Automatic annotation (TrEMBL):
Gene designation per UniProt: truA
Stated name of the protein: tRNA pseudouridine synthase A
Subunit and interaction comment: Homodimer.
Pseudouridine synthase I TruA alpha/beta domain: residues covered: 9-103, 143-245
Organism placement in taxonomy: Bacteria, Pseudomonadati, Pseudomonadota, Betaproteobacteria, Rhodocyclales
Active site residues according to the UniProt entry: 52
Reaction(s) this enzyme catalyzes, per UniProt: uridine(38/39/40) in tRNA = pseudouridine(38/39/40) in tRNA
The protein's Enzyme Commission number: 5.4.99.12
GO BP: tRNA pseudouridine synthesis
Gene3D superfamilies for this protein: Pseudouridine synthase I, catalytic domain, C-terminal subdomain, Pseudouridine synthase I, catalytic domain, N-terminal subdomain
GO MF, one annotated term: tRNA pseudouridine(38-40) synthase activity
Binding site for substrate: 110
InterPro entries: PsdUridine_synth_cat_dom_sf, PsdUridine_synth_TruA, PsdUridine_synth_TruA_a/b_dom, PsdUridine_synth_TruA_C, TruA/RsuA/RluB/E/F_N
Similarity section: Belongs to the tRNA pseudouridine synthase TruA family.
Stated role: Formation of pseudouridine at positions 38, 39 and 40 in the anticodon stem and loop of transfer RNAs.
Length: 277
């Protein structure tokens, strides 16, 4: 029995999250069924990180123990032939059984895409977040700078979060703007339930002038979720990849930093762009 790792891309607005549910309308349900069809029998999938309803992924990492031998092309093209258009297997890679999609990971990358304009988007509905009031770029970047490092993120975790500890280490929190499109990039060892959506909500509050950038410090030290901003919509959130030690030789290390097909990443006109680590 060999262990197979898959890179999975999906549009989360078509599903009710990653984790399997009795109703079967989750990403895990459809991918499990498709892989099982290629294997000729049932398989169990393990993912790097569960995504919520409406959250997308350019590279979710999953593994399963294959009960039969198949060429990599079968695990990719064969599985894709059984999947809806909103899900695709990007690649397949064989590893030994000591690999674990969740526990072998060293970092996760997420990007939140925000459309900041008076009128909500139509063509990108469900694929970007939206906020109607102007945001101050310098204030947002100054607030994001305060997030890097190891902190107790209790003020940014959901009440239903099952993590044993609220302490996480953020490697970077970058803010880049392309005209009306804002890109919030986060990399950390792991994230709490709703953590990124809660962070984006707080950054938007700072950007619209409700609080100064120093408010982020107060939230981190206060550890009180009720004092922070509301949870932002899932529409613009993307799992953009997971990092693993080089010894696994996963394609791109399992990591793709941005959603490459979305038009705001490559705007038609020269962008006004500033970013900071």
């Amino acid at each position: 029995m060999s262990r197979i790792v898959l890179g999975v891309e999906y549009a989360g607005d078509a599903f009710e999250g990653w984790q399997t549910q009795p109703h079967g309308r989750t990403v895990q349900d459809v991918v499990t069924a498709a892989v099982s069809s290629v294997a000729g029998q049932g398989v169990d999938l393990v993912c790097a990180g569960r995504t919520d309803t409406g959250v997308h992924a350019t590279t979710q990492i999953v593994h399963f123990d294959a009960p039969v031998e198949r060429p990599r092309s079968a695990w990719v093209r064969g599985t894709n032939s059984h999947l809806p258009a909103s899900v695709a297997i990007r690649w397949a890679h064989e590893v030994d059984t000591s690999f674990h999609a969740r526990f072998s990971a060293t970092a996760r990358h997420y990007r939140y895409l925000l459309y900041n304009a008076p009128v909500r988007p139509a063509l990108l509905s469900g694929r970007v977040g939206w906020f109607h009031l102007p945001l101050d770029e310098d204030r947002v970047r100054a607030a994001a700078d305060r997030l890097a490092g190891t902190h107790d993120f209790s003020a940014f975790r959901a009440a239903a979060c099952q993590a044993k500890s609220p302490v996480r280490t953020i490697r970077h929190a970058r803010v880049t703007r392309h005209g009306p499109y804002w890109l919030f990039d986060f990399c950390a060892d792991a994230f709490l339930h709703h953590m990124i959506r809660n962070l984006v909500g707080a950054l938007v509050y700072v950007g619209k002038g409700k609080h100064p950038p120093e408010w982020m410090d107060m939230l981190l030290t206060g550890r009180d979720r009720s004092k922070a901003a509301p949870t932002f919509a899932p529409d613009g959130l993307y799992l953009c990849g997971v990092e693993y030690p080089d010894r696994w030789s996963l394609p791109d290390g399992g990591r793709i930093i941005c959603p490459p097909e979305l038009p705001m990443v490559f705007p038609c006109s020269a962008p006004e762009s500033r970013s900071v680590d």
